[in-house]
TrEMBL record, chains A, B:
Transmembrane segments: none
Name of the molecule in the record: Nudix hydrolase 2-like isoform X1
GO-annotated molecular function: ADP-ribose diphosphatase activity; metal ion binding; NAD binding; NADH pyrophosphatase activity
Lineage: Eukaryota, Viridiplantae, Streptophyta, Embryophyta, Tracheophyta
Similarity remark: Belongs to the Nudix hydrolase family.
CDD domains: NUDIX_ASFGF2_Nudt6
Matching Pfam families: NUDIX, Nudix_hydro
Domain of life: Eukaryota
InterPro entries linked to this entry: NUDIX_hydrolase-like_dom_sf (IPR015797), Nudix_hydrolase6-like (IPR003293), NUDIX_hydrolase_dom (IPR000086), Pre-Nudix (IPR040618)
Species, as recorded: Populus alba x Populus x berolinensis
Length: 357, 357
């Protein structure tokens, strides 16, 4: 014979739930196919219907005046009579009130909890369970918990409730839980990193090129365009201007996206979008950044294009030839036009301005 | 007087370190500017030089025959004589061997630990500390720990060692630690989600449009292009073809990227790149997907462009007008050409094919 300590949750009002603790007698019948009554379903270790009853369990409670009579009771041991012979729930049930979590609803029937203050897991987890019972009753779908790294002690108990990771940044972890019995349609995490390469052509027909100190080009002697990673929240034109300034000290103005490349599995499992941008220089004197660069210079465009490396590597060959074509003024890339989207946030639309006007 | 229990780590060979536990007597002198000797530096709660001595501590050990004599000793209390009056290290030092972690070096002087098997934190943390001492001596920089969600119990102890989150996917958390005393140059997490909108024009001059069941367009009556999110590892052409097939059952061929838009803070703190793709239909009969769509149809392009919504919203107005211009055949977008980059991975370069050829 095996007793399982378990809970039933009942809704009182918007702010409180009642937890009825009980011990359930389970008769273990050996069977090859049926899982052990204490085993946990895959990916949902603890927020299963065994411990956190869905709406069906709420219906179950409706037939019991014993439970209804306990609504106003606070932490008082309940009757020891068994609830149902069939369920074999026995003696040690007791009832207590549990506070619900403060949460915000999103536009997709989801719930967002932003944790800020430290809280003990023995307080937080009962409130989380009770809140999920309520949200389930309300037909809510995804539950998001944003947990600052300072509250790392809550990660394990929340995962044990059946939550999974969604994404993380240096200072927080986002955990999610899908309530309904329908397939999980929670949106995926960010999938791409974005880079820029800058084609800066001066009025002498020279291109700004650099030799790198580290990475794949270290020691190859290859002269390449200044490149860098677009920061979170940064526009492509700003990123290309910033990278050129950081690496060479040259002040520039953004002109066009000449081409872009998408590649996969470039950073762990993430993909990469890389934009070749044409910039017009506003200054001429190079101030090389020493950390990443061995050298930087203005180089005649033909010399840049005709480097053996560019001839031998298809991607570099095309990029160099596109730059050369653009230098002859007979290539149209995508310009960037600021537009106001519905949200009012600043955004840029990139398109072939020459063909469109 | 205050005693601090602390550790010193000594390298034996590539696989083992010796930990010398000792108590350090600290005389607390009140000072407004100097931090408390037990206070922890910001962002580095525990892997400070107080507890995990850098290479300077290794030099310190070289002068001590007492320590050298202990190399072959296993969990035996060491001499109780103090090591140095100046250091005021006293009585209770003892020495034990600690296994080092299995790890892989990356191309950027970094260390990658992929955890797979369960391990108790009381075993793991001493090995991690010892390994970091060794990597510090070797001049290593970033330490990456990839921790499956099943090993969630290690998250808190690893964070307490000074690691921070880098990123997370549903089934794992990536933690990082920067060893040197130089600024942290670890690469950032993926920053963008990527979406596609499909402009599918048939030979009757009609465009494939849909009405959505949910989201911001629900109930607006607006006919819009089929849209969707690019999956991790998916090419833009494949994503646009897939989305049109999923939503409308229409088989298509990718032609060009007509325009794209970058926006920020569209999904938590992440940015968004959205590509308007022109596709040529290979079939005509629509099979509407019911989950996301209220309706789908072929619509004369003028009717699509002239919808009041498109006139009123700048971004939509431009996109519609670009599509209309393209329908008249006098607009050149970016075509996608497969190129072989150095890594040998398949990748696409997108550029103005008409101007380049």
């Amino acid at each position: 014979m095996l007793y399982i300590n378990s809970n039933i949750w009942l809704n009182i009002n918007d702010k409180q739930m009642i937890r009825i603790r009980y011990r359930k007698l389970v008769v273990l019948l050996p069977s090859k196919n049926s899982p052990s009554p204490v085993s946990l379903p895959p990916n949902r270790p603890r927020l299963s219907t065994t411990q956190l009853p869905p709406s069906s369990c709420h219906g179950f409670s409706k037939g019991s005046s014993h439970f209804k009579a306990s609504f106003s009771t606070r932490k008082i041991p309940a009757s020891t009579s068994s609830l149902s012979m069939k369920e074999q729930i026995e003696a040690e049930s007791r009832v207590e009130h549990v506070g619900l979590l403060n949460a915000v609803e999103d536009l997709y029937e989801g719930i967002v909890i932003e944790m800020k203050e430290p809280v003990d897991s023995t307080e937080f987890i009962p409130s989380l369970r009770a809140s999920i019972v309520k949200w389930r009753q309300q037909g809510k779908k995804g539950v998001w918990i944003k947990l600052p790294i300072g509250l790392v002690s809550l990660v394990e108990p929340i995962v044990q409730e059946g939550f999974r990771y969604h994404h993380a940044e240096p200072d927080y972890l986002m955990l999610v839980y899908w309530i309904p019995d329908t397939p999980d349609t929670l949106p995926e995490n960010a999938s791409h990193r974005v880079g820029v390469g800058a084609f800066v052509l001066n009025s002498n027909g020279e291109v700004l090129v650099v030799k790198e100190n580290s990475g794949g080009f270290k020691g190859t002697g290859v002269w390449k365009l200044p490149t860098g990673v677009v920061n979170e929240g940064e526009d492509i034109p700003s990123a290309s201007i910033r990278e050129v300034m950081e690496e060479t000290g040259i002040d520039t103005e953004f002109m066009e996206v000449l081409a872009f490349r998408q590649s996969h599995r470039s950073f762990f499992s993430k993909s990469d979008l890389f934009f070749i941008c044409m910039l017009r220089p506003r200054s001429f004197d190079i101030q090389k950044q020493d950390l990443e660069l061995e050298a930087a210079q203005w180089m005649p465009i033909e010399d840049y294009v005709n480097q053996p490396y560019n001839k031998e590597h298809q991607l570099f060959k095309y990029v160099a030839e596109i730059c050369k074509t653009k230098a002859k003024m007979d290539y149209s890339g995508f310009s960037a036009m600021p537009v106001a989207p519905d949200s009012g946030k600043e955004t840029y639309l990139y398109f072939n301005n020459r063909d469109f006007n």
